[in-house]
Task: structure prediction
Amino acid sequence: MKEHEMIRNIAGIHGSTPFSADAEQFGNMLYSMDSFSKTEDFFEFTPPEIIGRNMAAAACSDLLASGIKPDFLIQAWNMDSAETEEYYLEISRGIESVLQYYGAICIGGDMGCSSPWNWTATVGGNLKSAPVRRKASQKIPFDLYLSGSLGDANLAAFFRKEMPLIELRNPVPQNSLFATDTSGGFFDALENFRRVNPELSVELENIPCAIQEPLPFPEEFLLIGGVGEYELLYAVPAGFPAEGIKIGTGDFSGKGIHFKHGGTMHSPPPDYRNIPPEQWFAKTEEYYREVFR
Result:
């Protein structure tokens, strides 16, 4: 099954509206929930305190992409008895370091057993103004920003190495026109924007990659993976100075998403949500040859 279709089907039963924002609003609060496991998130070779910090930072990223900091976290642990008590305590210290950074607290949760272990967190925060959503609040010319470089977490997963530490970011600016994070990969984040802003036009260039070493494949392949990538991607009104790395410009003229390379504009990246996962690399290679060679 395709994930986005399943999300739509379940949302239809509950009457919710998926894809419009990274976090859900209820009254004057924003909420988000995320789950992690040792195997699915490639934590087998990562020290436990970094695991905890990365999981908490990732759980908070949906609120940051909506323009606010977290105020609280509720957690549910399913622990694997193969690990030691100290292992889980170190993970908890990593989680607590993120909460302290944002001035948030853990207010409890639940505990069970499973193999391998998994952890689920619900985070919430108080709204002081309208949240930033994936759907644009204004259809005006904009500059597109990224909070940091991409690729290092996906590379670590590819070579089965220790996961890099996720940087703790500030929330996106309150005047952001739209925003998301790159938890599903950079191309996936663009697709989240395109899904709810069909008239979106973006010219992309200077995508920062954190990889310095030679690779056995084009570095652009790392833009499609979603392993531990939790940078913030957001648009601000054109000319507005913002924190982060400016990677493009755009408006709502309906020309689509294009990469500028070597002074030439190219077609949009593949729509990975409509392509079977086993074809992702082939489609990326095809696109890579068109744009970057």
